[in-house]
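Let us begin with a simple case.
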Amino acid sequence: MYSIESFKKKVNMLHIELSDKQYNQYVTYYEMVVEKNKVMNLTGITEFDEFIDKHYIDSLSIVNAVDIYQVQSAIDVGTGAGFPGIPLKIAFPHLKITLLDSLNKRINFLNEVVETLGLENVETCHGRAEDFGHRKEYREQYDLCTSRAVANLSTLSEYCVPFVKIGGQFVSYKSGNVDNELRESEKAIRILGGEIGKVCSFVLPETDFARTLVPIKKIKSTGKKYPRKAGTPSKEPLQ
């Protein structure tokens, strides 16, 4: 059995209260990821304590930038093995969450996780953000969009901002210093109907892992032509 005392301590440092059932769900999820990782590339991090820090605590650290209790609906774009969407759903069961990923094998795995953990109000979607961002049942439907995907902020914003309702926000998980990226993406974010909120930089509890959360508030509707067709946002980021 894993020692979860350190995990509990770090969760408490984020001012989140979890039940034993929720901690057990996190352990089961960890075991499922590590097992599936043997046949499918989900994560390079399989050691329990490091996994806790870099996947769970990192995912939950969004509480430093967002009042999660004011959020009803969220979409996690490029969710991969389910981060940050599933850790957020476990901790905050009130959230109605959509997990979007372009690889069907990952979505099949996430369906197993959702069923095994008994999570409700989770929708999994196989597809690209550039396509789903134009579908009326997803476009401008969410209070919150999250992404830990590795891409520049202009590209990520084009993928993510179209999903967000006016008054909602997209939060990008970044590591280290983002000053240049913020400057370079300011115009793109404005074109997409967003504005950069209060950037939140910190070190994950009891680690040396620097994290920056960039909240982008949706202040007006995104123009119909965005996101552009598949592949374009990454090849030709908005300037």
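The second case is a distinct protein. As before, the sequence precedes its structure tokens.
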Amino acid sequence: MSFKPSLQAAEDFLSFVNASPTPFHAVHSVKQRLESHGFKQIKERDPWSSSLRPGGKYYLTRNGSSIVAFAIGNKWKPGNPIGMIGAHTDSPCLRIKPVSKKSSDGFLQVGVETYGGGLWHTWFDRDLSVAGRAIVKTSDGAFESKLVKVDRPILRIPSLAVHLDRQVPFDFNKETQLYPITGLVAAELNRQGKTGEDTKADTDKSDPEKSDSTFSPITPLSERHHPYILELVASEAGVSPSDIVEFELVLYDTQKSCIGGLNNELIFSARLDNLMMSYCSTEGLIASLSSDDFLASDPTIRLIALFDHEEIGSQTAQGADSNLLPAVLRRLSVIPAESDSDTSFDKLSVSDDASTAHEQTLATSFLVSADMAHSVHPNYPGKYESHHRPEMNKGTVIKINANARYATNAPGIVLLQEVARRAKPASTSIGESGVPLQLFVVRNDSSCGSTIGPMLSAALGARTLDLGNPQLAMHSIRETGGAWDVEHAVNLFESFFVHFGEVGPKIVID
């Protein structure tokens, strides 16, 4: 009897990643999913003591590019543990410079800046567009943020013909040879109904000594960027070009993510690192709350934190190395219980002195740092340690490093094994229970990347484990992952949230 695995989770992930070309869009996509399942938005600037209650589901955002969501168990008490999954919303990309207007040899070009450690050669000869956010001035004089995503290709970074440069390996200068073209000067002049003399006149008008326009502290957007790009952004934002005060735009590949492989077992996509883990943690949290009594007997808080700026070190206000998660945990640790007379879960109940509730919560909590892992590469087998060669569609990978580039240790592995054993099996498994896990360490003669895990474990003092689904071509504009691993991770994370309150106290170390 043949078996056809379900691709429902993978296909849902594709809709998520295709709608999320930037961290701003990813957070918006997560918000939509959370709100459709009853989560309510709260603000950092507001008091929480009067609005947060056991049994409630909430989320907050920072900068529109990081989001924290949580559900409070009905048996929660101050000082009880919090089960957390952390991931990140950003990926390496090209960002439009503050002054991007360029032209050369009859071509219109756009100045861009590299963000993160991308495989930049993969950005050549792709159909590119722009996405991000625009800050617009409203009719009442206020300023608000608008999401922008231009859906058609408008830029390309063309390679030099092999006949003109046969260098091997392919090399280029990121400052002078990574500028995309966006059209022809002549075509743009024709669109505007202008001539070369008109262009010279426009240039004279932009000269402060030759212009009588109103003073502007910074050169206006219309002079810093190609007018047509500004018009496209304004159209997407639903405003006029003059209403746009500033924007943050990045380039993205317009080719849609898709299922691939002879047996539909692969995913070909941009931003697998790390939107796959952002998606799986969100869906794992939502799935753990699917039944009517989802939090009835839960003494914990179930939380996800999706941070921006991991790819550039996390040291920003919305990064994992900020006060975002520590501040949220401090406030949650003292949320009062549903009833002062409730004496359930004595092992984790807190004394009458609530001054140490925060420290008690951190000491009993657990963080899963979820960031994509490396699959073994069939063309480069020597790059992998002989007994640690993760394969796609064989389960989420636990990442281990003796030099603490990952935060995993033995107690964390024990906890995750117990959680995986209790997880509902993926639709790709026949007659099996639980979900599979794999182990990975990097070779001693190779460098090792890092994640938000070590920095958060140091800042919080909470037990932490690093994991992720295996993929190829990490940081390429087009990455490859396993289609079935999406469901593996969602089921694993669901089980973590459901069973952490039971399993966590059984692993006694200190």
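The domain at 8-91+270-506 is CATH 3.40.630.10 (Aminopeptidase). The two ends are 51 Å apart (CA to CA).
Keep these points in mind for the review questions at the end of the chapter.
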